[in-house]
Amino acid sequence: MASANPQDSMPVNMVAITFAVMASIIMNVLDTTIVNVALPHMQGGLRANVDQVSWILTSYMLAMVVVTPMTGLLVERFGQRRLMLSSVAGFVFTSAMAGQSHTITEMVIWRFLQGLLGASMVPVGQSILVSSYPPERRGIAMATLGMGIMLGPVLGPILGGYLTDDLSWRWCFYVNVPIGLMALALLIRNVPEAGRSSRPRPIDWQGFVAMAVGLGCTQVVLSLGDQDDWFSSQSIRTLSVVAAASLALFVWRSLAVEQPIVNLRLLKNGPLALGSAGIGLFGLALYGVMVILPFFLQEHMAYEAQTAGLAMAPQGLGAMVSMWLAGKLMSRRVNPRALALAGIALGAFGSYLTLSYNLHISIGWIIWPGVIRGLGLGLISIPLFTIAFSTLTRQETAEGSGIFNLMRNLGGSIGIALITTIISEYTQVAWNQLGGHLSPYTDTRDASSLGAALNSVTAQHLAALVGRHAAMQGILDAFVFVFWGFIAMIPLVLLMRPAKTRPTATPLMES
Fold it and tell me: Does 435 have pLDDT greater than 70?
């Protein structure tokens, strides 16, 4: 039932809509991390080598980054309801098929289709929530959504560890089936039709091919660059040239044609452009930490997968608390830029504390910096989203959400690639620096842990000790990179100017 003022109306099924969207988004985001801890088990079960099994992750991210920017066009053609329902149903089906795969080829195909069909879930879910909540409560809606997005990376390693150890790696995919069916039932019952255009834009096939090839090659370069030694590999050089040329053509088509595949002209909107750049750095910091910590805890602190996941969970809990707090504060008209800057300060401080890590720290030194960093991440993400969408009309929201989430995914991919490279390269640098001081004639009086002149046994122990300390230095250098990722957000936030009043065409659910 509509009220006299449409902007004051609130659907009675808002809780059900929120719960359905949250379940869908958690299921989608969970699949970016839940598989990580199961990869060694999958490698044996699928009879694959290390390079082949990495495509289980790469194929999923590849499909996600190709489809996400097309969200606006898909909504125009099919509407939010139909697109969301088909995305959830397709994701559930491909999850079940991935779980029953018996070869690496089967798995990669189903993972690619899983990413392809599920890519629209986050931006469309975002748009559904924005449309469902009145303007004065939109901060709470985005806080709820952000909590769901943050819950995935937190629960992924924990849930993946438990399922793999207690059941089978296949349950990392089967777990999506009950969650997805429950979300699908709620979506069918509660989500209204919206966003479909009676005259949708024609598809710019040249722009689509350029975008798919450019983003696809970029994702492959980022995923495989480190293991192929980057530009020393002919295939990486070729893919990089193809990616650059294709993306240049895509940008030109997006700006030159009247109805492009992705409306990059929206980036003329200052808040959206700055917010998208900021969320890219946010993705870099978030996923960078999610790469460093499991590697550090399992490889060098000898934590089991489940224990490592539990040690990382407080960061996500801190983020969820601060997201809820950010939503409450913004509903009371607190300046979102002030919240974002406070979040950057907390995130940078939490990252700065990790620069004192060593091979003998207690679990408390893992938990508390993570909580502080998580509080910062929560205070950053909600204001960024709110400012980015503060001047978009309802017609622009779905497409803007596609661009916004593309930048988050790309930021995460770039962060993962750079972190992996930093750990690898700087570990080697530290090894050379430490090992350069050792020889059969080295004075070992300071090597109290060894207490003997170099002989074959002592040399082996010393090599292992040098290797551990070199790896620790590489990890510390990676944490330095994350720290500066937070600092780099400051000028973007200072340049943002949230709208004082929202436009009348702000995304709202029609009566």
Answer: no
